[in-house]
Structures are given as C-alpha cells and as structure tokens.
Amino acid sequence: MLPIDPAEALPDDARALYETIRTMPIVSPHGHCDPSWWAQDTPFPDPAELLIVPDHYVFRMLYSQGVALSDLGVGVPRAERDPRAIFRLFAKHWDSFLGTPSRGWLEHTLYRTIGVETPLAEDSADAVFDEISARLAEPGFRPRRLFERLGIETLATTDAALDPLKAHDAIAASGWGGHIIPTFRPDDVLDPARPGHRDNLHRLGAMTGCDIGRYSGFLEALRQRRAAFRARGATATDHDVPVLATTWLDPQEIGALYDRALQGGLDADGARRFYGHMLVEMAQMSAEDGMVMQIHAGSRRSTNAALRASHGPDMGADIPVAMDWVGGLDALLNRVGNDPALRVVLFTLDEASYARELAPMAGHWPCLRLGPPWWFHDSPNGIRRYFDRVVETAGYRNLAGFNDDTRAVLSIPARHDMWRRCVGLHLAEQVRAGLFGRAEAERLAAWLACDAARDTYRLKGTH
Amino acid sequence: MLPIDPAEALPDDARALYETIRTMPIVSPHGHCDPSWWAQDTPFPDPAELLIVPDHYVFRMLYSQGVALSDLGVGVPRAERDPRAIFRLFAKHWDSFLGTPSRGWLEHTLYRTIGVETPLAEDSADAVFDEISARLAEPGFRPRRLFERLGIETLATTDAALDPLKAHDAIAASGWGGHIIPTFRPDDVLDPARPGHRDNLHRLGAMTGCDIGRYSGFLEALRQRRAAFRARGATATDHDVPVLATTWLDPQEIGALYDRALQGGLDADGARRFYGHMLVEMAQMSAEDGMVMQIHAGSRRSTNAALRASHGPDMGADIPVAMDWVGGLDALLNRVGNDPALRVVLFTLDEASYARELAPMAGHWPCLRLGPPWWFHDSPNGIRRYFDRVVETAGYRNLAGFNDDTRAVLSIPARHDMWRRCVGLHLAEQVRAGLFGRAEAERLAAWLACDAARDTYRLKGTH
Amino acid sequence: MLPIDPAEALPDDARALYETIRTMPIVSPHGHCDPSWWAQDTPFPDPAELLIVPDHYVFRMLYSQGVALSDLGVGVPRAERDPRAIFRLFAKHWDSFLGTPSRGWLEHTLYRTIGVETPLAEDSADAVFDEISARLAEPGFRPRRLFERLGIETLATTDAALDPLKAHDAIAASGWGGHIIPTFRPDDVLDPARPGHRDNLHRLGAMTGCDIGRYSGFLEALRQRRAAFRARGATATDHDVPVLATTWLDPQEIGALYDRALQGGLDADGARRFYGHMLVEMAQMSAEDGMVMQIHAGSRRSTNAALRASHGPDMGADIPVAMDWVGGLDALLNRVGNDPALRVVLFTLDEASYARELAPMAGHWPCLRLGPPWWFHDSPNGIRRYFDRVVETAGYRNLAGFNDDTRAVLSIPARHDMWRRCVGLHLAEQVRAGLFGRAEAERLAAWLACDAARDTYRLKGTH
C-alpha cells in the first residue's frame, strides 16, 4: 500500500483552507531548473540521473550514512554509472530519510507526480526503477507537456551574468507558450573572491563591448546585461552572499579596488569591500530598472575540504552561519532603502534572525520582503517556525510568498504542495486562535500560495 | 459583525483558568504613559492623535507598506494634521495588520474598551472615527475615571532623572486616589553617548545643589534624585542599554573618565566604559535603597539614518541585536549579584538568549528575575515561546510577571488581557501534559497575572 | 493523593507508542555515577545526602530563591549537616520547582522508583524523609540489586585519564554481572588551562612509565591509558570543552607548546591552541582504536566568582555560551572527519545551533551523530524542540539516542522515562501529520529508546 497523501492527514479546518489553493497555478519566481530542458524538449534521463545523482539533499544524507559518493555516481562520468545499482543503493537507505522533507518530496514525486504504484523499499527497487523509466518515456512527461500539465504559470531560472541565454531565446523562438524567464545572477563578475573573476571581467567586456578597463565601463556593462535579461522577461536578480557586509565606498576607493581586481590583485579584505560595494550598486540599479533584488545570505560553502578538492562545490557540505542582517545591510539600506522603487527579498539560513532582525526590518523598510524558508528550512517544521516567528512583527504583506528554489523539476509540485498544506495548517490555527475569521484566512491563503509571489516579483498573473 | 473576542476561542481548560484571573486588578509596574493626563484630567484627543500618530507599532507597519509618514501626521505639527484623513489611510491598510498583536490590541481597544460597534474597514473609517470621537467625549473616558473603570491598581510611568515630577506632585496634591508612581530612568545623565550629556550633568548639579565637579558629588546627586523619586512612590529604576557591557573601574580610572565626560571629551570607548561602570554603581545603590533595577538591553536604535535625521528617534527603525547577557552582566553580578537586597529585572529582544542564558542565570542568581516578553515579542506567539523556553530552567518564581510597557493608555487592558489569555493557554497545556494539577495552575495563574508583578516590584497589593 | 504519572496524560496514540518502549532495558552510555557504589554495594545515604546536597539542579534553584547554600549542607562537612533540616528547607520551596524537569524527575524518583506514598509538601517533609529512609534501608535498594531491578543493560561512568579504575576492577573481580564501564575523560592532562595540568602530566608519566618529557612520549602515554580503559570495557571518550576551537599544528609548534606546558608556562592563547590540537589528536586516536569521541561544548563554567572561591566548581553557575560548531570543529573534521572508522557525538547547550549547524553537519559528515538534549535542555520542551529542529535535516539515523548524563543514580529511570514519553509524543505527531505510518514509528521508537545508543556507542545489546 502506498503511503497516505499527507493532505489527508490535515485537520478539517486546515484541509478546507488548503483545498481553496491546492490547484492554483504554480508561480515559481526562484529556482535552478535548466532552461535547455524546455528548449530541447527531450525526455528526462533515467531515474538515478533524474532523482539521485544531481540532488545534494539526497546524496548528502547517504554520505552521512557511510555511502561513498562514487557508489552513487556522484563525480563519476555518466557513461560509467550504473543507474540501477545507484537506485538500489538509494532504496536500501530509504529509511534514513524518514522525517525529512526529502522523503516527502520524493514520495510525492514518485507516487503522485510520476504515478509509481509500487511502494519504494529495498526489495522493490528494481520494480520502482522500471515503473519510473516507463512513465518518463511517455509523451506526457516530455518537459513542455509536463510544464503545462503541472500548471506552471511562471518559472524563473537562475543565470550567470555571462550566460548568453540561448536556451531562453530558443524557447521564445519555438513559439511554445510556457512562461520561462531568466534571473540575473552576477556574482561571478561582482565578487573577486570567486574563481575566475578577472577572466570573467574580460569576458563581460567582450560580451558587451564596454570598456571594462575603467570602473564606469564596468557599471555600464552590468547595466547592459541587466537590460538583456529584462528583454527576455527577467524581473529579478539574485545574489549568493556567504558573509553579508554591504558598504559604500567613495569613488576613489572603489576605483582603486576595481583597478586592482582587474589585475587579480585584491586580498581577502579588498575583495570583501569591493563585493560589499557592488551589492549597493546593484540595489541602486534595481531602484532604476525595477528588477527585484534577491539576497540569499549566510551559507558557508564547501566546508569539507577533501570533498571540495575531489568533487568540487555543492557536495552537501554547505553549512549555515549565524547572521547579522542589520549590520550586513546597513550600507545598502541607508543608501537606497527608502526608495519606493526598490524591492529586496531576503533569504536566511539562521532562524534566530527571523524574529530578532528580519521581521522587524521587513516591518519597517518599504523595500524589504521576507523570502520563504530556504534550503534546510523548506520543510513542514521550518515553515511552521517561519510563520510563528515572522508574521506577528512583519504581517503577511511583507512576505514574498513561496519559492521552490529547486533544480529538480519533478519536485516542483511536491514543494508547492507542502507549502500549501503548511499554509492551510497555519491559517487554520490563526482562525482557531480567534485572530481573524475564515474570510480573511481565504484571502491570505491565496496571497501566500500565488499572489504574494506574483506581486513581489512583479509578475503578471493569469487571474 | 464584530470580530470575536479571542477569549471565546480559548479551549475550555484554558478558558477556565483565564476566567480565574480575567478581572483581577491591573498591575502595571513598567510603561510610558504621560502622568500629565491624570494631573490635568482633560479628555483624550481625536482618534488619529490617540491611536495612530504616536504609536510606532502602527506607523512602522504602514511605512513598510509604502505609506509616507507625513501622510500619517508623523513629524507634522498638530495644527496641520487632518485626523480624519489619517484615520482613513490607516483603515485602508487595516489588512496589513492581520496576524500582528497590534491588530489584536486595536480590536480590543476599539470594540471592547471604547465600545465601537462598527467593524473597522476601509469603507467604515469615517463611521468608526465618529464613534470613537463620541465615546471619548463622554465623562467616563476622562483619564481619572477611565483609570478607575479599568481597575488599575498601580501604574508606573518612566521619568528622566532630571524630571521635576511635577505631574506626579499634582496628582498627589489633587487628592485623587489613583496610584501612579514614577520610575527613575537616569540614562540621560549616566551615558556620555547620549545627546546633551554634559549639559545634563550641569542641570543635575543645579537641581540637587551637589558639587558635580567631582565624581563623588555626581554620585551624591544621583542618590538625591533616587530619594526624590522614592519619596513620590517610585520602587524601580530603568535602563535602556543598547550594548550591555558592565564593568567595574578603579577609583582613579572612573574619576578620570568622569572629568573627561564633564568636558564632553569622551570618545566612544571611554563613554562605553563610563556607562558600563555606572550601571554597577546603580546596582549598588539599588542594593542600598531597595529600588528594583530594570535593564532593557539590546535594541539597536534608529537604524534608518534618513528617518532619524528628518523625524528623530522612535520612528519604528529600532531593530534588536544578538545578546551576550553573561558577558554583559559579568561585572555587575560579580560585584553585587549575591547581595540579598538587590533585585534586577532583565528584558531581552533576542529570544535565542531565553533558554541559553537568561533562564539559567535567573535559575541561579538570587537577584535576577526575568521580565516578560518585550516589544516585538509581547504577542501570543512571543509569550508562548517565552514560557516554553524559560520556565523549565527558571521556574515560575524567577519571573517578573507582566509589564504592558505602553505609552497608549487605552491599550493597557488589551495588553493585560492578551497576557492573561496566554497564561491560561500555557497553564492548561502544563496541566494537560501532567506536569501539575489544576490547583497549582490556579495559584500560578494568579502569580503570573498580578502577584509576581507586585512582589517583583515591591508594590503593596490590594489583596 | 499523589500527582498523576505523566504517562497517563499522554494522548492515546503517543501512549501506545510509549508502551512499546516503556520497559525496554536502560542503556546509559554517558553519565556521572560513582562506580564505587557498585564496587562496595553499601546502602545509599540519607535523603538529603542522596537527593539534594549533590544535585546542582536542585540547589541552584533554591539559591536563586534566596536560600543560603550552607543551609542546604552544600560546602558543609557531612558530619555538621542536619539532613532533616535540609530536607524541610527543600520541601518548603517545593513550589519553586513547578514546571521544571527537576520536579518531574524528583516526583518519579520519590513516588515510583522509591515508592513514597505521601505527597511531598512543606508540612509532610518529615514523613516523606522517614519513608525514603525506610525504603533505602531495604535490601532491594542496595546498589547492585537496584541496578538489576531498574533493568540497566549498560552503565558508563566518566573517569579521569589518571583514574586507576579500581572501582571498575573491583566490580569485575566481584563476579557480579552488572555491565558498568568507564569512559575516558582526559581533559585534565590535555588542557593546560585546567588547574594542576603540569602535575597531571608528571602523574601520567609515572602511571604509564612513558617518557612524558617529549611530546611523542606524551602521546604514547595517552594511547596506553586509552588501552587500559578499553581493557575495562570502555567504548568512548569524553571532552568538556568550554570554547571549541580545534586546530592542527605542525610538529614544531605543538612540540614547542608542549615543552612550555611541561614548564607550566603557557599563556591563555597557547593553552587554547594546545588543547585545540589535542582534540584532533584524540579524534585520530579514536579513528585508530574505535573509541567513540564525545564532545560536550559551550558551558561557561563557574560564572559566580564568589561562589567559586568559597565552594569551588559545579555550584549551579555554569551558563551556556553561543556556539560556532562549524568553525570550532573545522580542523578536526577536515583532518579526520571523512574517516569511516571515526565516530564523534556532539552535545550543545545552544539550541540556535540545532537547525543552523548541527543538523546540517550531522546530515553530511559520516563521523557525526547528535547527542540528545543536554543539561538544561533535557526536559519535555527541550526534547520537543530538539526533534523539531534536527530531524528534518539530520534524519533519525544520525541521532545518538538518549544519555541520562546524571550523577543521581535514582533519577536514571525518571530520565529515561521522560525521554521515552517524549519519543512517544514526537512520533505520534509525525504519524498524525502523515509523515510515516505506525510501523515506521515503532521501529523509530525502539531506535530512539535503545538501539541508537547501543549502535552509536558500539555496545552489544541484549537483544
């Protein structure tokens, strides 16, 4: 027997609220899907390649249980992987996911999105593998058809500043109507601490024709790339900031730092100051061109040095760091934070900052909205704690709605469904506590499920 | 139809406990009401002036929604304000308060304390404005009559060391029996980082006749002011400490710092050391004269520089900072913390410090009591988290009971009622979990509603 | 009437899960019981000596209520104590424990483990004292018989590196079958900041015959002591780390630091670096010899200087400090953390680190398991928050199960029972939320009650 749909476990009042939003369109303004899937519209790969090898949520847990990454195909050339063996190994450790959101997403993906009818267990691994393979070969699972069937209204990808956006252009040229838009993520050209920064500056110059030999030319090149993204539908930018420390430097200092960055000669402190200044420049450009600025801050990347050396980044060893949002955003907010044209969405991995900093900040600054629980916290308890800690001080109108933030396209419905169940639970509790009535709860449910994301990211909705 | 009274939403067991404390006297040992209201006993002003313009909880939320402060009358001379237009703008954004304690307080104030019969909404703004105005004109809403009707047993105001306390004297001279007492808040003369500190020292000298040219004279002047407050019924002092760092300096160093402070010549570090020492002096004086010392620590004030420049402090941009209570109080506690005559009440804005520091400290030091959830955390979820995190380690007898901490007199019953509902909820859950029985819960309910505040602040109760 | 057994207050589904684990054997892999109790098997002392004088949970609360430690017999020679007077004073303040886990443990100990039939209250102190005394004189309460009756499968004590383990040898030589094993706690010889460190080094040399004049001889002596502990059944080591800062030094630097430590000449920074390096050496030895490494980090010890001076350490003034687990363990994990032979169990007092650091780390590093809630957090709410914050990211297989961590042998059943009730509550909620079914919940209940502790600490179970 398959596990029950967790929606059936909702209390009646929560279930009723959830049902009002269950089938609303999926608005996905932040995520990491590969746009070439829809440009090419070729079938998805085998189950291991689709569900395990690229999912750091999955393989980090298996690694913690003593499974070698190479046995999972991670860091192994595709031709040398044995997808069925990988899937068996995963199934053997299925119990270790009990209680995790990964388990919930995978169950939803397998049993509801793909339609597998055999419960996953160590001894059913092969059968499940075959069922998945059979379904993925069906025309309804081709990327474009799937996009439509899942009711995705808008899907934003995340793209480097130097990305020529050819896949997005191909989608547009194909005449297919799916609304897939890029997001401008310029850290590779902004942050001198990133590998290849100096080369990236030169590539940026070549791509835009701007004179990146001078700081003003660099800014102009950034404006050009922002415009190129906007021309392809982008409404937002994104920054992945390990340690948040915005700063505003006088023209001489930033010019001199830029000159040194061009030589590849900045030390760690200089790199931090340069990047801290560039975040403020980006906020100013956002106030000019209306692109919503997203800040994902506070992940200590690649803390397992041996794994980083052998396998590169994103191997499950990124661990959150305690945050000081007020100090970190001080320069940005005090330069441009009162500008009514600016919108900034903040994402934290330090829940201690929800009630202490983020909610009070969002409840004051007109530019700020709070992103939904991010990464480890995108989970039933994480979402409950988020509502518990932010709503009383920030209200609902300063929340950004939901982002699935996933690179696993098949998990998109699972993630939105989990959020919508949690919204139902939360709002039902508020009604039960006498904070507001059923009518207000329904309005807020729609806001949290769709409208907040549309409004925050300045998307046009279908309604 | 008016929103339901949240008390009706309580589960039966919580409701029963709440009913045992619902109508107990209001003991308000810490707040910011203006004593001149009761000295003069003139009617309260119009609804906008009463409920919106002075309430930073309200206007910060509207500011976060893009409303200009000037449109709310904030920073606008009273004669130039349009109270009805302000009230309409507030009503238009009434939805943005859903889920916040401000909404709960305002609903209680409007529908239960004032007796408005029309539900507030954008299209009822004028009607509600008129209803409020009509009620406020009634004799029962004059400050003294209202004080009696609300069942206020004691109300403490907060008063600068240099305040001549004329309003308190006028109340006493009037023969009216309301128990309104001052609280000694000497930061303006203790903290060299405050504007006008040097002038304040000279005013202190003039006021007391002490020779403030020497440090010993300064201490003597402080003792005199404490005595003057005590003579008017004060039982407590209060400190608003941005960064807590108590320290005990040798006589030479503190003398030298004082001399420089008198010249206005202390740098930031010197000012911090001076203030850190003065907090210990205050604790020593409290151990001598029995005044309960309150420390409200960890609010980063006025983080929006443009607003501070245009409108001054208290504009809704005060954001909490992470706290180290152990390090910050080390010098104070290790100098005077074992003295049985000392009582210190601690208030935090960093909930991470509840279970990690404050509860263990209160469960050890005889002088310490934990203040109730403060500011952003004075809310149903904030109160629930407070009980959840502090009681297991500190017990109930190390808690200070409730403070409304408000400058909005009409919200006093709303705030005590919210606390009492949360006390009922909390204690009912404890009984349900089998931790203790109904009899113990009733004793603790009375302790938390009234007795703890009376006992902590050394007030005489009516019972 | 006695208070109800809190198990009777469990909801039906939680109760049913709890009943599946209620009577399982007690596995106690970390605690502070005195092994000489079982070596000598003499009756336990009087009630005050047994329950109050040595329990810092109890006397810290009474101290916070203004009770003098000397009136509780703390720091008073045993011959000068009046046990009955101490017990009366404790009973007088029994109310101050309402809501604390100490109250729950004491109630379980009194009414269920000892079998007292009179409810404790101020006016029943003498009667309860007499009942306890009578029961303790029964043969069934002699340490060995009690150990068997309580169903203790394994009990680990905590023993200094220099402890000759004579009590353990005496237990083994007695032929009695109770499984009591030592735990290797070498901080006294590893941490130069500890009193007597230099003397301890010389004692270590004398004890092992190693040449501790050189660093290599010191390491060899440590290996010998580890082997001596293993020969007596030890499977684990333990470290009490105030500020966690592991580091790996080159041979020259550690050699030079060691030489200075031998002279007693290390300053605070040198001591910290030396100890930080030794923790990594210990991890390496654990990877070699298979002893599980426990790290209890983040307690600021003896923050009340006057009490420390008059009474010594462990007087209830140890207060947690905010933790940076990632930075603190960086050197250790990046040297040996990927070694499949290593196991490290982490214990925190900073709950903010549960979801932010510890769960992500345990969900990645193969060597890490998370210890159960420690000290102040070993309580119903503390356990609930632990499951709430760690399971979603770490799963259940990265948890270490339960430790009672007590020196109060009679409280062992109370502590395991509290954990098992909380396990029942937690898993019932997971089932109710639709996360998994009853069968999985029963498996996880057994894991959390016994199997995880056996597995984590490499103990052989009875099943």
TrEMBL record, chains A, B, C:
<keyword id="KW-0413">Isomerase</keyword>
<dbReference type="GO" id="GO:0008880">
    <property type="term" value="F:glucuronate isomerase activity"/>
</dbReference>
<dbReference type="Pfam" id="PF02614">
    <property type="entry name" value="UxaC"/>
</dbReference>
<dbReference type="GO" id="GO:0019698">
    <property type="term" value="P:D-galacturonate catabolic process"/>
</dbReference>
<protein>
    <recommendedName>
        <fullName>Uronate isomerase</fullName>
        <ecNumber>5.3.1.12</ecNumber>
    </recommendedName>
</protein>
<dbReference type="InterPro" id="IPR003766">
    <property type="entry name" value="Uronate_isomerase"/>
</dbReference>
<comment type="similarity">
    <text>Belongs to the metallo-dependent hydrolases superfamily. Uronate isomerase family.</text>
</comment>
<comment type="pathway">
    <text>Carbohydrate metabolism; pentose and glucuronate interconversion.</text>
</comment>
<dbReference type="GO" id="GO:0042840">
    <property type="term" value="P:D-glucuronate catabolic process"/>
</dbReference>
<dbReference type="InterPro" id="IPR032466">
    <property type="entry name" value="Metal_Hydrolase"/>
</dbReference>
